[in-house]
Design brief:
The structure is a homodimer. The first copy, chain A, is an alpha/beta fold. Chain A has three domains: 5-260, Alpha-Beta Barrel (TIM Barrel), CATH 3.20.20; 296-370, no CATH class; 396-524, Double Stranded RNA Binding Domain (2-Layer Sandwich), CATH 3.30.160. Chain A is built from 18 helices and 16 strands. In chain A, the strands form four sheets. Chain A has an eight-stranded parallel barrel, surrounded by ten helices. A three-stranded antiparallel beta sheet of chain A has the order 11-12-13, with helices on one face.
């Protein structure tokens, strides 16, 4: 059975979206996540275009991937340059990937107006660039930019370009609907014609400008495409690229084609949320397949039918993509989830235990307040242990005060925090300055507690995220803070929610410390040491 | 030339979306807006299902519509009831619309499991309900629910159902992909078969569960559908309905079919935002055709090409749907972007002017510090005017102090801000409490300035975003704040960056106010008024 290869360009085309910027660190984490999800190709960036991408390829060289191939992206050589002297092509080689993708023009208008060169020179640019790279890397893909538009205007020339690419030895030829303006039947018939004449493996790269990105990719596969390029959640310039999170289940569950394994499919929802988190984008509730609402039933007719047979109003089994049915009037799946989680945390609890119901209520209350435990399982475990009467009190909170003062326009503000805590009846008051109020609070709190719990020295903060929950409320909106902390052998996420960012951060900080003292250091004996004089 | 009828169900199917609720007032305003936009049918609700919809039809009776027909929606009579005694059908008549749509089952599994009746009774339900309504209203539409799924499982029966509807005299038969699970080629071939055997006018109703809602609607039109049902912005249960805001331009500009007039097309973007506003949903920036980013260009290659010929990277002329090309200011930008932007702001500047180079340097410095002007064009314009010596000083900053104090664990913290500013040598000290430090600062600052600049009363904050730039630095990371503010006739974004979230928010707040005073109110005379005693 032929496998359709999934080629992800979230890190390159996806990051060209207006509101998306990834740090190099983000890009590396996403690349590994895509690899764990069974994606075949991961386009990491365009080393010729910006230093951040060069940095990415340098760093990524040292990490190993299960199966995904990392790809460096760039363009054909410039007009009237020798390939071996073209800086762009040399950047590609320096990236040191085993796979390289270059794009070239296949629309005559673009050759004349954008490149400002003649049609024959463009053919040489394509051929020479591919030959140059083919001699130096193991796999070369050629993206025929604007192929469908070009073919509609001047089929002979568009065809000549990919014929050149084939002759030059490209391993893949990818037909691109760069402007996202084509209709599915156009993509299908043009692709079919090309597939009849080209022996090289063909791929497709579509955009969503007509809200047809996914449809166009599927139409191409129907006509013989063996590779689909796109991005997670459809990120990308303008209206985005074709959304791989929708393409994959359509290929697999609707068209019966092999692409990702069943196990990988089950992780699609998690992948979608993970990438949204790093892009600091709020989750698209109505996203096909993986959205929170994708299998949520509200209409009375639907709800009663769905109870009798889920197939009545669900086009697939949600579990297959890691999602679940939600009946908005009364969520039945809740209780079993609580028990499932408890077991995960090694807590012994019975589903008939009334505490389970209480925990469920508490969880729902918290979620209504804006808490979200995806990525904050540390706080979730603490909440559970508390609900089961298993949470130890390591210190008693008394109070805090934070002052931020700015005295002159050209002067940086001073942030100072005072914290009062009690450990075994000993009250501790400490103050600290910091880069901003939250950092000052963090420092003061650790200062106060480290005397009693030296193991806090081992703990450090890895990640601090802030999400405004109801943005339209302006500066009085609710704020959710996610912290990622860890020590030598584990990592944990904690969450806080409040209209006051300092209070929200405080909650997440306290949880992070309690997790360290109560759970992470569970195996070591945790009792307050004698305070150093 | 045949006209494809546009049937909107935003007010009924659209409002079944998990996060959308319209008041009766909202529904009436939207109905009139759809009418002004040339839509042919407006489905107002399901009077049988809830009192709010009954209310809507009572109110809407008294208002007149240019051309749109208001439609009441409901189901066929219940099993083993007489049509004239069926409450649901009578509700439909009481709505008093000239057009009525009823849905019936065409999937045998649904008849048996959801309706729990036999196949012949379902045929009678369809026929008798249509006859009953046809005698009492001028136009009756029959929605064949789950038609495509039904046809795939049991074509004979699915076909029997619509044949009954035709015999009973339905004016339209609408084939529905209720679960949104069909592929475009399936929709096309099934629709084609039906169109060959049914004389009644055919419509299509699709959902977006496979991210193919728009593609499926277009496939049906290719196969003979004369009516497309959908919603504005694709609202709807689960993953939503087919998005009419994308269907219309595809029909008109890509398929060359008549549906809405050119004038109505130009109002699509405004319609999309209007409905988002009433639904209290923030605008989908990447929405095809009408999104803020739909014709926004960031990639350097794209920007230079778009300048030479917009067709290079735009699939349609954005003006046709009321949208426009935007060139994004970002680290990719060069001198020409600066000049382009200056012209946009109505600033007269020559590309040879050394100030342009200085501005470019300043922009790059700012971006290295973490400033980002996409979405913060207000701050960018202020920076430009300052660079060109055109920025007016409306007040002098002296200082601020923010205190956040929490005294007990179970007690909400108190946030208080003090602000000192000078306006025409008059020093003003004000303090305010708020929901968190930033809100307190915001309030105190406005309090201080509104006495002198009453027009600040017109300004409000729409959006507040916080992005941690180097998350891995934990609580000492750099923070970028984006604010969106506006008044009765415009909106502007401003930005601030600092390790201190309060300082970052302060910068963005100051810019927002300066923009209001110096630019938004440009045409009104802006001089400090005499402070009220």
């Amino acid at each position: 059975m032929t496998t359709i290869k999934i080629y992800d360009t979230t890190l390159r085309d996806g990051s060209q979206a207006e509101d998306i910027t990834f740090t190099v660190e983000d890009k590396i984490r996403i690349a590994h996540k895509l690899d764990e999800n069974g994606f075949h190709y991961i386009e990491g960036g365009w080393p010729g275009s910006n230093p951040k991408d060069v940095d990415f390829f340098d760093k990524v060289k040292h990490s190993t991937f299960k199966q995904a191939k990392i790809v460096a992206f760039g363009s054909t050589r410039s007009p009237r340059k020798k390939a071996d002297q073209d800086p762009n092509l040399n950047h590609l080689l320096r990236a040191g990937t085993e796979v390289v993708t270059i794009f070239g023009k296949s629309w005559d208008m673009h050759v004349k107006q954008a490149l400002e060169t003649d049609l024959d020179e463009n053919l040489r640019m394509v051929a020479e660039s591919i030959r140059f790279l083919k001699q130096r890397t193991s796999e070369v893909l050629f993206d025929a930019e604007h192929f469908f538009d070009g073919y509609k205007k001047n089929p002979e020339y568009a065809f000549k370009v990919i014929k050149e690419a084939e002759r030059a030895g490209a391993d893949w030829i990818v037909l691109c609907d760069t402007n996202g303006g084509s209709m599915p039947w156009e993509v299908h018939s043009i692709f079919e014609t090309v597939a009849g004449e080209i022996k090289t493996k063909l791929g497709v790269h579509t955009h969503n400008d007509s809200e047809l990105g996914v449809a166009n990719a599927l139409a191409a596969v129907k006509a013989g495409a063996l590779q689909v390029q796109g991005t997670v959640n459809g990120y990308g310039e303008r209206c985005g690229n074709c959304n791989l999170v929708s393409v994959v289940p359509n290929l697999k569950l609707k068209m019966g084609l092999d692409c990702l394994s069943d196990e990988h499919m089950k992780k699609l929802k998690a992948l979608s949320s993970f990438v949204d988190e790093l892009a600091n984008r709020s989750h698209w509730n109505h996203q096909p397949f993986v959205g929170k609402s994708a299998f949520a039933h509200k209409g009375g007719v639907h709800v009663s039918a769905i109870r009798k047979n889920r197939e009545t109003y669900e086009h697939i089994d949600p579990e297959k993509v890691g999602n679940q049915t939600r009946i908005l009037v009364s969520d039945l799946s809740g209780k079993s989830n609580i028990v499932f989680k408890a077991q995960e945390f090694g807590l012994d609890i019975d589903s008939k235990d009334p505490k389970v119901q209480e925990l469920l209520e508490q969880l729902k209350r918290a979620e209504r307040l804006g808490f979200q435990y995806e990525g904050a399982e540390g706080s979730f475990e603490l909440m559970m242990r508390e609900g089961l009467g298993q949470r130890e009190e390591h210190f008693e909170f008394v109070g805090f005060r934070v002052i931020v003062e700015k005295r002159r326009e050209d002067e940086a503000p001073i942030a100072e925090a005072t914290v009062k805590v009690k450990v075994n009846g000993v009250q501790e008051v400490t103050a600290a300055e910091g880069d901003g109020p939250v950092n000052a609070l963090d420092k003061a709190l650790r200062k106060a507690l480290t005397r009693f719990y030296p193991e806090l020295e081992e703990m450090s903060l890895y990640d601090y995220k802030v999400r405004i929950l109801d943005e339209r409320k302006g500066t009085s909106a609710k704020i959710r803070v996610l912290l990622e902390s860890g020590d030598h052998n584990s990592k944990w996420g904690t969450v806080g929610v409040s209209e006051d960012i300092i209070e929200a951060s405080w909650q997440a900080l306290i949880d992070a410390i309690l997790y360290k003292l109560g759970i992470a250091s569970r195996h070591e004996k945790v009792t307050p040491g004698t305070p150093a004089p």
